[in-house]
Amino acid sequence: QVQLLESGGGLVQAGGSLRLSCAVAERASSSIAMGWFRQAPGKDREFVAAITWISGSTYYEDAVKGRFTISRDNAKNTVYLQMNSLKPEDTAVYYCASRGLQKYDYWGQGTQVTVSS
Q1: pLDDT tens for residues 69-108?
Q2: Per DSSP, what are the bridge partners of residue 99?
Q3: Theoretical Cys-Cys bridge with 104: which of 95, 97, 113, 114, CB 3.0 to 4.6 Å?
Q4: What pairs with residue 47 in β-bridges?
Q5: If you average pLDDT over residues 48-65, what whole number do you get?
Q6: φ/ψ bin of 46: left (φ > 0), alpha (ψ from -120 to 50), beta (otherwise)
């Protein structure tokens, strides 16, 4: 069974940095990419970044370009999200997800990121 385990969330001051990790315990054979999403209180879940397993192509939501970096370690089946220059509006629960051919079909439990002003 596919399991995604996020870690690395916490409380940080504005301007600070955090690195999130997503360990894929059982990688789905259909998984072609991994993504990070976030959901702030009272808001819909939104896409943050994604990376493909084979080519390492990356994609970012406009609000995080230049501040966040997604990377992966194929040998460890782990995906990272390096978050720099954090802002209070980055406060949310962050989720990693595995993407198959058509959709993100496996999700982690989420990790809280809180950025204080």
Answers
A1: 999 999 999 999 999 999 999 999 999 999 998 999 999 9
A2: 33, 104
A3: 97
A4: 37
A5: 96
A6: beta
What CA–CA distance (Å, rounded) separates 13 from 16?
Answer: 6
pLDDT at 28: 77
Q: For residue 116, how many other CB atoms are within 10 A of its CB?
A: 11
Local structure of residue 90 (DSSP, 8 states): G
**Does residue 1 carry a pLDDT above 80?**
no
User: What DSSP letter does each residue of 8-53 carry, written as one string?
Assistant: --EEEETT--EEEEEEESS--TT--EEEEEEE-TTS--EEEEEEET
Residue 18 has pLDDT above 90, yes or no: yes
The distance from CA 87 to its chain's CA centroid, rounded to whole angstroms, is 16
Query: Residue type for 51, please?
Result: I
**CB-based contacts of 42, cutoff 8 Å, min separation 6:** none
The structure tokens 């990419």 sit at: 33
The label of the residue with tokens 């600070």 reads: 16
